[in-house]
Amino acid sequence: YLIVIICLFVTFLVVGAIGFAFYTELQDAVKFTLETSIAKYYGINLDADRNTEITTATDAVQRYFSCCGAYGGVNSTRSWYLYQNASAWYQATTVLEGNKAPFVPLSCCKRRADSSVQDQPRCLGNVNVTNAPPANPPPLTGSNAALFIEGCFDAMQSFVSARILVAGAVGISYVVLMLAGIIIGFIFARFLAVADYYGSKYTAFDSSAGAAGGAGSSSSPIVT
Description:
By secondary structure, this protein is mainly alpha-helical. The protein has a domain at 17-162. Helix content is 63%, strand content 0%. The chain has helices at residues 2-21, 23-40, 49-65, 81-86, 88-97, 120-124, 152-161, 164-219. α1 runs antiparallel to α8 (164-219). It is found in: Membrane.
């Protein structure tokens, strides 16, 4: 039991240290994956399973986290502007629909309580608002109340940060319980060792006393 608890404790510490050490690399990897997926695979060649899965997952993430694009804010080229600036989806849609093509997918649009799109023409850029997304490139001074403008990495990071205290409390509680288990295991193991030591001493003493008593009884005369 003690060995298992110690192994789990060491594993927990190692994983935590690795996660902390590679936190920045993990962030960069997630950003790169989001950007590449949207730019190369979103919304095109939907006969391919990979493209369909990426498109479905991207739409679900954008609706759930109220975001659009990979990362960054309103003036980033990797948030909502990523679709227009670098995606194969926008190029293909422009070929099919010309100047009526949307600048962002419908999953980037804000919705009402009944799940209907709040203002679809304004959100998709079919109605141009001066110096506002998505019909105009960044940097911008205008706004679009119908469009999600934050990148999905930033939105997900905010979601996690809001819950990090709970996760931290759970992690600390887990460490404390493991340490308590290790301490109790050491105490119990020590108790067993001491009990075994004195038990063997008592057994040896009892055996020698019995042997001595037996020898004395056999040499004593029988009185009648």
